[in-house]
């Protein structure tokens, strides 16, 4: 018995000591100065290169202070797990024309990445937002995303902040088993295209206990998002937690397995949303569940829109060919800032299937009267208390 617990304690100690004893590669050792103006990209790349080559767990440390950083790509594969500990603030160049690529700090092809430290990635996006003309110009230049994770697996990103990105704050592509926890996103409501965390073509991504204040979708899930959990996230300002938009491009992969639970959406344009383009390529999105969501003054608390067509960049009359099935909206309560609090507008070519609506309590306090709802091309299964009544108005 005593022996057993001794062995247990030893194993526990060993498993913790791997991170305690990680060899530390401090950027200051490589010449980085936290003076807010000297570019540390060479120092960071050197520290990363050595950490990544270490055969035992390693840590790249950016200590307290403000460090100027032009764009960097931190590449794997690495020989052992690597931690990126950001204690201070990294500051991007404000001028977007100084960027050669669409990423500011890019992590790619890394298995076993941890990010921590309480620090901030400051994208200094203000100038770029003023130059963003993507709403009108379809060939607009893609501005840099603060943090890109390309083909990163078994990763934990926690206790860091991304601030004022020029474009998406975080982009996740090709991830497997990646968790964001106590992760902070911050930008003003009028910052353009600053999606908080965008995920595409990834399997097993969790966003937990995080807060996202930004100018576009708090979380957006693009094609090929599979087994995505969003739990305990506070969102707003922003455009809500969105699946899509889907169907704009050729060869999109299915969306499958989206679980959004215990989230709070405050003062946002949308709450929970699924959006697909009209006149789309064929595709599927299924097994998407939104449950236990608090809405506080949200313009469109629940919205499934298969005719998503901002700035008339599409043939609006031609129905979407993205087939949506197995969707549930449950235990959604709070206040709506518009009268139509629940919209489930499916495609007339491929009506939605297996949609469930249960326990909705959304209040609207406008002059037009109480909250209402709209449906198109869907026959949802209803249960529990429904305020507003589901599909009060059926449109086509
Ligand atoms: C997922 O990644 C975390 C963080 O690196 C790791 O601790 C965990 O073991 C991984 N899970 C699986 C199933 O590989
Ligand atoms: C729900 O999320 C909040 C944070 O927004 C957290 O404090 C609370 O513990 C969570 N509750 C459950 C049941 O997960």
Provide the domain count. 1
Helix content: under 10%
CATH homologous superfamily placement: Single-stranded right-handed beta-helix, Pectin lyase-like
- Rg of Cα set: 23 Å
CATH uppermost class: Mainly Beta
CATH-assigned fold name: Pectate Lyase C-like
CATH architectural grouping: 3 Solenoid
How would you summarize what this structure contains?
The chain has 396 residues and is mainly beta. It contains 3 helices and 32 strands.
Report on the architecture of this protein.
With 396 residues, the chain is mostly beta strands. 10% of the residues lie in helices and 49% in strands. It has a 32-stranded parallel beta sheet that branches. The relative contact order is 0.07. Bound molecules: 2-acetamido-2-deoxy-beta-D-glucopyranose (2 copies). Its main location: secreted. GO terms for molecular function: polygalacturonase activity. Keywords: Cell wall, Cell wall biogenesis/degradation, Glycosidase, Hydrolase, Secreted, Signal.
Write the layout of secondary structure elements.
Elements (H helix, E strand, L loop, with lengths): L1 H19 L2 E4 L8 E5 L1 H13 L4 E5 L3 E3 L3 E4 L6 E5 L2 E3 L11 E9 L1 E4 L3 E3 L3 H6 L13 E14 L2 E3 L6 E4 L2 E6 L2 E3 L10 E4 L1 E7 L2 E3 L5 E3 L3 E7 L2 E2 L5 E6 L8 E12 L3 E7 L6 E16 L1 E6 L16 E15 L3 E6 L7 E12 L7 E5 L4 E7 L5 E2 L2
Parallel strand pairs: 1-3, 2-4, 3-6, 4-7, 5-8, 6-9, 7-10, 8-11, 9-11, 10-12, 11-13, 11-14, 12-15, 13-16, 14-17, 15-18, 16-19, 17-20, 18-21, 19-22, 20-23, 21-23, 22-24, 23-25, 24-26, 25-27, 26-28, 27-29, 28-30, 29-31, 30-32
The structure holds 2-acetamido-2-deoxy-beta-D-glucopyranose (NAG) (2 copies).
């Amino acid at each position: 018995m005593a022996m057993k617990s001794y062995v247990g304690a030893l194993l526990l100690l060993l498993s913790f000591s791997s991170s305690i004893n990680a060899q530390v590669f401090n950027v200051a050792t490589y010449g980085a100065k936290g003076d807010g103006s000297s570019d540390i990209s060479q120092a960071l790349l050197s520290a990363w290169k050595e950490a990544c080559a270490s055969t035992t767990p390693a840590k790249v440390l950016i200590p307290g202070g403000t460090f100027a950083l032009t764009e960097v790509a931190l590449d794997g594969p690495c020989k052992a797990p690597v931690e990126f500990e950001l204690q201070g603030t990294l500051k991007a160049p404000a001028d977007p024309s100084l960027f050669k690529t669409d990423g500011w700090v890019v992590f790619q092809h890394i298995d076993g990445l941890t990010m921590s430290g309480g620090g901030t990635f400051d994208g200094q996006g203000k100038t770029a937002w003023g130059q963003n003309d993507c709403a009108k110009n379809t060939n607009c230049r893609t501005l840099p995303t603060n943090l890109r994770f390309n083909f990163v697996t078994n990763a934990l990103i926690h206790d860091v902040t991304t601030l004022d990105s020029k474009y998406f704050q975080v982009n996740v592509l090709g991830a497997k088993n990646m968790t964001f926890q106590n992760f902070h996103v911050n930008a003003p409501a009028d910052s353009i295209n600053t999606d908080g965390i965008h995920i595409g073509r990834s399997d097993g991504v969790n966003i937990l206990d995080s807060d996202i204040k930004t100018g576009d979708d708090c979380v957006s899930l693009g094609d090929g998002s599979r087994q995505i959990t969003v739990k305990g996230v506070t969102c707003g300002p922003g455009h809500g937690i969105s699946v899509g938009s889907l169907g704009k491009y050729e060869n999109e992969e299915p969306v499958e397995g989206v679980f959004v639970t215990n989230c709070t959406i405050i003062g946002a344009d949308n709450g929970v949303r699924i959006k697909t383009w009209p006149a789309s390529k064929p595709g599927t999105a299924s097994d998407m569940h939104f449950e236990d969501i608090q809405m506080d003054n949200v313009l469109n608390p629940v919205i499934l829109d298969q005719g998503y067509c901002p700035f008339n960049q599409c043939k609006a009359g031609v129905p979407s060919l993205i087939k949506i099935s197995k969707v549930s909206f449950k235990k959604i309560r709070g206040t709506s800032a518009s009268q139509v609090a629940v919209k489930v507008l499916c495609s007339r070519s491929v009506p939605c299937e297996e949609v469930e609506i249960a326990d909705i309590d959304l209040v609207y306090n406008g002059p037009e009267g109480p909250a209402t709802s709209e449906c198109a091309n869907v026959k949802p299964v209803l249960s529990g208390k429904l305020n507003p009544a589901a599909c009060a108005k059926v449109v086509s």
